[in-house]
Amino acid sequence: MEKQLRRSLTKQDRKRRHSKIVLTDRGVVNSKHRKEDDDESPKITNLSMLFLTEVAKQLSLIDMYNFWASFKQAKKAVDHLWISQRSLSLSPQVLKHFYPDCIELSSPYFHWFNVVYEIIELCGFLPHNRLRALDFEGCCSLDWSLFNDCLEENSVSVLGLFSNIEVISFKNCIVSSDDFVEMAKTMTHIRRITLTESLFHIYPEEVLTIQSVEVENGFKLKKGNTLNKNREKTLNFLATLFPELESVTLLP
């Protein structure tokens, strides 16, 4: 997959990837736009939104460490994580309607929790945790129990990390009943859940072969079913898991 992506890169993309990235209060800019006499090291001030999809196109693996280190040094608290496993190319103008204090994570090569773990390590959410919302888009499998195991093995408090989460949303994701059960163990203050397009959306179809998912109370969602066909059972299932739940938005 990586080889195919490399072959698809244009000459301009290759040249841009090796450019130096500078982090400013306006976001991410290319070094060629800076003044030549500007010797000050790049700093992040009042940075409310990072578009890592765009950054990843230009940073090498070596540069990524410096990027995270700079972000950690800024000690910027984050309210909202938007986690995407699709290769998105959205401009800041398109994304301007999103929440302030939001980080977009786009990781086509790694499982989503590998990226989140980097955030935990370098941004230091604990013990001063302001994280209130989680957005997942295009994640073909969440494997929440595996994520919990990964954090516990590295002595990271799962309860501390997600203890303040109140809003969680999924779009084009596969979320199994087991994922919700695992989430309920650590995210005890969930108030709003949004599920868009389908609860068990197959993405990509050629990779996953899930035919159905069963939960303890007996209701089953087969491949291709939308949430509207199982609205009442889905709502009852979520309400049982999350006692503080105030609203659930189900969009076909």
Structural write-up:
- By secondary structure, the chain is α/β, with parallel strands linked by helices.
- It has a domain at 77-251.
- It has helices at 2-8, 11-17, 52-56, 61-74, 92-95, 112-123, 144-153, 158-162, 177-186, 231-241, and strands at residues 21-24, 27-30, 49-51, 80-84, 102-106, 133-137, 167-171, 192-196, 212-214, 220-222, 247-251.
- A hairpin with a 2-residue loop joins strand 1 (21-24) and strand 2 (27-30).
- The model is unreliable at 1-65, 85-110 and 200-229 (pLDDT under 50).
What would the keywords be for this entry?
252 residues, alpha/beta, seven-stranded parallel beta sheet, two-stranded antiparallel ribbon, globular
What is the percent of helical residues?
A: 25-40%
Estimated radius of gyration: 20 Å
| Main sheet: strands, sense, barrel | 7 strands, parallel
Shape: globular
Report a brief summary of the structure.
By secondary structure, this protein is of the alpha/beta class. The protein has ten helices and eleven strands.
